[in-house]
Automatic annotation (TrEMBL):
SMART domains in the cross-refs: PLDc
InterPro entries tied to this protein: Diverse_PLD-related (IPR050874), PLDc_3 (IPR032803), PLipase_D/transphosphatidylase (IPR001736)
Domain of life the protein comes from: Eukaryota
Annotated PLD phosphodiesterase domain residues: 192-219, 406-432
Source organism (scientific name): Anabas testudineus (Climbing perch)
Stated name of the protein: PLD phosphodiesterase domain-containing protein
Length: 482
């Protein structure tokens, strides 16, 4: 284009030279003025053409396809909130609840016709795995049985999990392999000094589930979980498959992280280029983020980057529900101070006057070392200076379930702001974003008020409000050091 501009300018320059050298022009003042005006107009046109043609293209947005004219289901991307509420936890009537996790898992299994891919930190779908005799493991046993039957229906099943850092008695994967399920364990300890902490499903390259729930019977009846299921969304499912495939190839013996990752792992769906979905008069922009950085090509938005951008772009409020919150590393030795997310929260509250609410889990296995960091954050709360940071601890009643280890806990990992719903698989401390495998689903939504309640972002806010105002949430007590 620049070459064309140069040629046009040169041609006009020759014209002007010839015109001024002509006898007619030398005898006529009006002729000279006309040429000057034409010269100015031409230069202006050239400048405008350069501005227009050299302007960078607008951000790329991937639109889902409308319904196929032949009647086939294409990229409709129907989204729903998914929850698991522990037994004996009762809310008041008329509160927002997600679809039960057990129901969603059974639904995904029943509709599978080609392939099911599952990534999970670990597998314990029966009580015997942890030497517990409890009828509350029946839903887990049923899920395991249904997964075992998939190969007999000619449905391929692939499972990736983390090489366990602690020996378990689980026989789930052994039983699945005997039924024809392909299983690989990824040694993240060797590859990144972390673990595979992701939890997601990809079904038939068009349905996905992402959330906090591991393949654990306790996730169905004893632990409070939250996730999102998206049906008929092949663009997003194929993108999530790329993440699964990166785990799968790293599950081979003697694997090593490629530098750089081959082009088949690149994505064109990210923070800059989200997937645009229009459904029920709700406009959604969706992308997947991942961690750790060494496990993805540069085109994949990092999970930490997604979280930081969501906090910084919030205009009115940021609500966070996570099991653990530490502005440090947790598992490396020596531990390091890691205030990246903590700083972003403080900046949003102090500089932009964004209202912060944080719901942190408190259970038998919670580390009390969290409390000083949470109290430090909460101490910034100052209505007089229009700074609002409120923190509550969410306690799941143990009741008569005390014999079940690592249960009765709020395992949620999500954030919701004015327009964004974020559902992840990681706790909020340094290791989860530096060395550990995790996935975050980012959904930015806009909807007119009559249908706003249909938006997943609005539903997630309602779930947060439900928990925040419930009898299970207790305000963090500030302890003065004076």
């Amino acid at each position: 284009m620049c070459v064309l501009m140069v040629k046009l300018s040169y041609s006009f320059f020759l014209f002007v030279c010839l015109f001024f050298s002509s006898p007619c022009c030398q005898r006529s003042t009006s002729c000279v003025m006309l040429v000057v005006i034409l010269a100015c107009l031409t230069v202006l046109g050239i400048v405008l053409a350069i501005i227009v043609l050299e302007r960078p293209p607008p951000p790329k947005i991937h639109k889902t396809l409308p319904e196929d004219p032949d009647g086939d289901s294409t990229d409709q991307c129907r989204m729903a909130l998914v929850e698991s509420i522990p037994q004996y936890v009762k809310y008041k009537d008329n509160v927002t609840l997600g679809i039960p996790l057990e129901e969603v898992w059974k639904d995904l299994i029943s509709m599978a016709t080609d392939q099911v891919e599952v990534a999970s930190f670990y597998w314990t779908l029966t009580g015997e795995d942890i030497n517990v005799n409890s009828s509350s493991d029946l839903p887990g046993k049923n899920i395991l049985k249904q997964l075992e039957e998939l190969p007999s229906r000619n449905v391929s099943v692939r499972v990736v999990t983390s090489v366990p850092s602690v020996r378990t008695n689980s026989t789930d994967l052994k039983l699945l392999k005997e039924k024809g399920v392909q299983v690989r364990k990824v040694n993240f300890g060797r590859l990144t000094h972390g673990v595979l902490h992701s939890k997601f499903w990809v079904v038939d390259s068009k349905h996905v589930f992402i959330g906090s729930a591991n393949m654990d019977w306790r996730a169905l009846t004893q632990v409070k979980e939250l996730g999102v299921v998206i049906y008929n969304c092949s663009s997003l499912a194929k993108d999530l498959h790329k993440i699964f495939q990166s785990y799968w190839v790293m599950g081979q013996p003697n694997s090593s992280l490629p530098q750089p990752w081959p082009s088949q792992y690149d994505t064109d769906i990210n923070k800059e280029h989200p997937l645009l979905v229009e459904a029920d008069n709700v406009s959604s922009r969706i992308y997947l983020a991942g961690s750790p950085p060494s496990f993805f090509p540069p085109s994949r938005t990092q999970d930490l980057e997604a979280i930081l951008s969501i906090i910084s772009e919030a205009q009115h409020y940021v609500d966070v529900a996570v099991m653990e919150y530490f502005p440090t590393t947790r598992f490396e030795r020596p531990q390091r101070y890691w205030p990246v997310i903590d700083d972003a929260i403080r900046v949003a509250a102090f500089e932009k006057k964004v209202k912060i609410r944080m719901l942190i889990s408190c259970g038998r296995d919670s580390d009390p070392a969290m409390l000083p960091f949470l109290q430090s954050l909460a101490s910034m709360d100052s209505p007089h200076h229009n700074i609002s940071i409120q923190i509550k601890l969410f306690i799941v009643p143990v009741g008569n379930q005390s014999d079940i280890p690592y249960s009765r806990v709020n395992h949620n990992k999500y954030m919701v702001t004015d327009t964004v719903a974020y559902v992840g698989t990681s706790n909020w401390s340094g290791d989860y974003f530096l060395t550990t495998a995790g996935v975050g689903l980012v959904i930015s939504q806009q909807a007119p008020y009559p249908v706003k309640t249909k938006a997943l972002q609005s539903q997630l806010r309602a779930v947060f409000d439900r928990d925040w105002r419930s009898e299970f949430a207790l305000t963090l007590i500030l302890v003065s050091s004076w």
